[in-house]
Amino acid sequence: LKQGHIAAMTTIRELCSTGQLDAAGQYIRQNYTPFLETPFMRSLVPLGLIGATHAMKSEGEDPRVIEAVLREAVAAGQTVWGSEHPYIAWALSDLAMLLRDQGRLDEAETLAREALVMRRKILGNENPDTVESLKGLIDVLQREGKSAEADKLRREMALPGDDVPRPPSTE
User: Fold this and answer.
1) Percentage with pLDDT > 90 across the chain
2) CA-to-CA distance for 33 and 134, rounded, in angstroms?
3) CA distance 42 to 108
């Protein structure tokens, strides 16, 4: 099993390093699809992909490889849980921050907004994960030069350090 994983990661790295991100995604999908058909394994597929990206980040993996795996984690999560789930929001948020760090701010903003909307709907405004998504979006907006919108969002949730009182929860 470990040898298979090493071989798969080598192939994914090669595809990503040559700009073949779609082929890398297809290769990842090919490898996890059989597990989606096994009832007790279904939920483990997206979780395993998300977890793998966290290990990859800490090991200094090429961001293109992490991006390919995160995109497949989102797709697998949507297959398993539908379009909205806390783990899908987690993967979207991670992907948004990865793209932010690469300077791909337009795409990062779109994904950060999607993650925030999903987390607000599922977890509520007060949840720490929702607050982290909000902070991530604010950071992206600041980097894009959209300070007015970033300030509005900061006031909306009265993040720590702000002098504006926090509005009551909408739940």
Assistant:
1) 65
2) 33
3) 28
